[in-house]
Amino acid sequence: MFTEFGACFNSEECYNEVTSACDAFDSQLSSWAYWQYKSFGDFTTTGGTAEGMFNDDGTPQALKVKAITRTYAYAYQGTPESSFFSSTSGAYTTTYLVEDSVTDNTEIYMNPEMWYPNGYKWTVFHAEGGKQMEGTKLALSNDGHDLIFSFFDILDYNTNRCTILITPTLQTAKGSVASSIPELSLDYNYVDTGNSGKCPIKVHYDAGVEHNIEAKLYDREGTLLKNFGKTYGSNGFDAVCSQLVDAKLSLWSMSTSWHTASEQIAHIDMNGLNGHEATFNVRNIAVILQ
User: How far apart are CA 290 and CA 286, in angstroms?
Assistant: First the structure.
């Protein structure tokens, strides 16, 4: 277990410090405990009287509360493989190997008031391919902070790799983003298809869009998942929704000569997709106006 970290002031820098530490712990499935609950004037740290969770007047330090109030699974009906919480969007995803020898349920802590004030959506699906796992049920604790997942018949999924995805309710399903090239924009449209873990993506290019304009999909680590072409068959990608947590669709103007550099001209943060079909259109405004 990791502990004694985050002895800092209630500031954006402190929030980032604590969040970065917790991200690293989660990536290794390591337990952690924040240091410390209240200030004791510890002369061995740099936080002084502000290193605890409370201000001098007794009110909670809001940024620290937000940093450590993370969604996470604390019990699995099997063996955990990965766990990721996005402090950007509030999305949470975890994957585990289902084992019928484990008789207790999978349980997840969350703070709806902090991260899901407008509601949330949860899906349970096969880690490979995103097919929905049917025959699952969800129960809530009385305070709404604990989600308890279980299978009606665990034998149906024994030794299967299961992914759970929780996302804030999507607030904006359609819109447009301007690019740094005035005549181009990047439009998007998201359609909720239910409880599948599949999030297929299509990118269309208007007539007249130059050949060097390309849309690219990157995951949260910055790894390129797909370079979308302009022909049928090359403009689609069958994403698993958990891949899209903190993912980004970028529009690029690619270099056409040795003395010019490729440039990102627009991007869309793909937060909140959970059982959605996503369609993007690179729109040529100049053609429309003619």
Answer: 7
